[in-house]
Each structure stands twice: as C-alpha cells, then as structure tokens.
Specification:
Helix content is 49%, strand content 13%. It is an alpha/beta fold. Strands 1-2-3 form a three-stranded parallel β-sheet. α5 packs parallel to α6. The radius of gyration is 14 Å and the shape is globular. The N and C termini lie far apart (34 Å).
Length: 112
C-alpha cells in the first residue's frame, strides 16, 4: 500500500481513498445488509499502513459499514479514522438527516 501511495503522490494525485469493504467492492445501496466489511481492527490497520511517508496526498477514510453494522459502528470508525490522521472521513449509505448530524458532531466536537 505504501508503494502505491508513493506512486500516486509522484504521479500528482491529490487524494487517496482507503475503505473498509472486502474485495470485490459492491454498491452499498444495492447490496444492503449483504455488504462485506473488514472488522474494525483491519479497517484501522489499512489506515495506519497508509502512513504519510512524506507525501502530499490527502487521506480519505471511507466506511461502508452502515447497512451491515449500524450507525454506532459507522460513527466509531469515522472517529478512529480521523484520530489516525485521515484528512477527510466519509460514511456511505447513511439513512437519514439525523444520521448525518450524528456524524457531523464528530467534527463539531473536534473544533471545541
């Protein structure tokens, strides 16, 4: 992963997305609860393995676990991704405006 990220940086990429789905990736809206997600430890390891290594890329930590594992796990992963250095966190397939607000509170709590 580090070699790929260095290569992307050298090629001029501005961001790298790291996500927690098991290959092959599926659309979470189509797969619903059948989406396959790595456990939280493996998801965090993916983020940590991508360590910056002096490159300029932004890191996007994406979780697709909402349908399969619930909102609490989604918020937890986003929190950990941010703590581990992701510049942007993204949660796919949130189900309501209230869920978006719950995720937004992470950012609001960081700012205070």
């Amino acid at each position: 992963m580090r070699r790929a990220i260095r290569g992307l940086d050298n090629a001029g990429a501005t961001a790298v997305k790291i996500q927690d789905q098991i290959f092959p990736k599926r659309c979470t809206y189509m797969a619903g609860h059948g989406i396959q997600i790595v456990d939280q430890t493996a998801a965090v390891a993916r983020i940590e393995t991508a360590e910056r290594d002096g490159n300029r890329n932004l890191f996007v930590g994406r979780t697709d676990c909402r349908a399969a594992l619930g909102l609490d796990e989604t918020v937890s992963r986003c929190q950990i991704f941010a703590e581990r250095g992701c510049d942007i966190v993204y949660a796919e397939n949130l189900q309501s405006p209230d869920e978006y607000l719950a995720l937004r509170q992470l950012k609001d709590n960081e700012d205070t």
